[in-house]
Amino acid sequence: MQTLSVKTVRRTQLVDVTAQVQKVVASSGVSNGICYLYVPHTTAAITINECADPDVARDIEGALDRLVPAAGPYRHSEGNSDSHVKSVLVGASQVIHVEGGKLALGRWQGVFFCEFDGPRERLLQVKVVAC
Amino acid sequence: MQTLSVKTVRRTQLVDVTAQVQKVVASSGVSNGICYLYVPHTTAAITINECADPDVARDIEGALDRLVPAAGPYRHSEGNSDSHVKSVLVGASQVIHVEGGKLALGRWQGVFFCEFDGPRERLLQVKVVAC
Amino acid sequence: MQTLSVKTVRRTQLVDVTAQVQKVVASSGVSNGICYLYVPHTTAAITINECADPDVARDIEGALDRLVPAAGPYRHSEGNSDSHVKSVLVGASQVIHVEGGKLALGRWQGVFFCEFDGPRERLLQVKVVAC
């Protein structure tokens, strides 16, 4: 298992980490298998979506912020309950097929680390297994 | 890895692909293991839910459409930003246990390809691994 | 594959099952690998989020109930369409890395069984594979 670092600069931010993950896949030497992605944070998540037009990631950020209002009502007193909810909706884990030594992503797909309580220094766990 | 084709006929549509996926599991010869499902599209997703009453899938379609309005405000100019957001909320990947040569689904569960920007011809990646 | 029992006491309830899952990991004897979690129900789900402050789980429950109203409009006549929708949003499967014989969770993370149509007796499928 390798752990990547991700630096975020906004409270809600989708960061394209495709190249970093692809590098882990390449260095694993695995030709065909599975890539396991996991976010060890409770106010962040991992998703796969369009990386061609950066407006899509911005639209996703805006839509999630409108969907889960920061205002509550919430009990947790740290002011980031909405961040926890977004993390649950998007999810902490993803699996992607590896074919020919690369992530078998669709034509428009990229891997996005999702920050919901930034800016912060974050981690992303990656494991590539032949199968 | 096998790639299945899925034809969708509506903009938002849950398509029951359980039989197609079960066929891949059977043809793999794997008795106990894991089935990995992955959607290589940015306006579609994969989920598991009730397949007994088709009204449930229709209710899920309606609820997602109400949850993420098509109207925005969005930046992406293709008129399908809501589709991208739904795709992120439902997710591109799922894993299901395989037991006795079959998907270890619950009694009421089926596997659904989720179309959020149809009608289209879509793909679903499936891999079955013994473990 | 092992199947854990989870008893829920409210209609919408996040139940911390970290210790139960950790026990399966320990008894598997796997040092490094993957833990596969799967919920064989259509009105429940599995997620990973903060287990330090129980208010976070309560806030997530409340936010999901506000996000997906019980009132509909829905077609399915069992009065739990909102439960099915929440199940789709949170998801039936998760994968977590195993390192040193333990779930490689983040500092604040716990594993939560998500009940959306309780109270009920529920099941959670767990498999731990070395890799």
**The CATH homologous superfamily of chain A:** YjbQ-like
Uncertain residue segments of chain A: none
> What can be said about the biggest beta sheet of chain A?
5 strands, antiparallel
CATH-defined fold name of chain A: Jelly Rolls
- Domain tally of chain A: 1
The order of strands across the largest sheet of chain A is 1-8-3-5-6
Spatial gap, N to C terminus of chain A: 16 Å
Per DSSP, the total helix count of chain A is: 3
The chain pair with the largest interface is:
A-B, 31 and 30 residues
Class by SSE composition of chain A: alpha+beta
Q: What is the mean predicted local confidence, pLDDT of chain A? A: 97
H/E series of chain A, N to C? EEHEEHHEEEE
> Per DSSP, what share of the residues of chain A sits in E-state strands of 2 or more residues?
35-45%
CATH class assignment of chain A: Mainly Beta
Instruction: Note the quaternary state here.
Output: homotrimer
What do these coordinates show?
Three copies of one chain form a homotrimer. The first copy, chain A, has one domain (about 1-130): Jelly Rolls (Sandwich), CATH 2.60.120. The longest helix of chain A is centred in the middle third of the chain and has 14 residues, at about 55-65. Chain A has a five-stranded antiparallel β-sheet, covered by helices on one side. In chain A, a hairpin with a 2-residue loop joins strand 5 (about 95-100) and strand 6 (about 100-105). The first copy, chain A, is built from three helices and eight strands. The two termini of chain A are about 15 Å apart. Chain A has about 130 residues and is of the alpha+beta class. Chain A has helices spanning about 20-30, 55-65, 80-90; strands at about 1-5, 15, 35-40, 45-50, 95-100, 100-105, 110-115, 120-130. Helix content of chain A is about 25%, strand content about 35%.
